[in-house]
Amino acid sequence: MNLSDFSLFTDENIDPFLVVFLREIGFDVFDVKENNLNGSSDTFLLELATKKNRIFITLDSDFGTLVHKDKSSFLGVVFLKPGHFDSKIHIQTFQAIIDANPHLETPFMIIAEWTNTAIKIRIKNALEY
Q1: How far apart (Å, rounded) are the C-alpha atoms in residues 15 and 87?
Q2: Is the dihedral of CA 16, 17, 19, 24 positive or negative?
């Protein structure tokens, strides 16, 4: 499967401009802020995303702990680094993931990091969990 095959679930730290961009390019997006779930626990949000069969998009590294250390079930997590930057950077980073068009096997984690010179994308697929 490819990322475009999934619906998305955006964490409260995802800028509304990124949410709009994702919808404009065809993604079905459930946004935490729009659904008045701000302040909910990370565990609750990841469980909700999984129940809704959606990929979780976040700037929060705590989700790596949930899926690796705590072994929480999940469909997929996209972690955008560094967090709390201008939305244009996160839009470029997400576009780079789409352009790379990686083959994904659930559960998966994508870590996409913007630097001044490049966007680095690392993927861990199902067999690595």
Answers
A1: 6
A2: positive
Q: Tokens at residue 102, please?
A: 């990686």
- The Cα 101–Cα 93 span in angstroms is 13
Domain 3-128 sits in CATH at: 3.40.50
Q: What is the pLDDT along the chain (129 residues), one digit of tens a residue?
A: 999 999 999 999 999 999 999 999 999 999 999 999 999 999 999 999 999 999 999 999 888 778 777 677 899 999 999 877 788 999 999 999 999 999 999 999 999 999 888 999 999 987 564
What are the structure tokens assigned to 100, written together?
Answer: 């790379």
The alpha carbon of 81 is separated from its chain's Cα centroid by a whole number of angstroms, namely 11
Each domain of the chain, given as residue ranges in start order, spans: 3-128
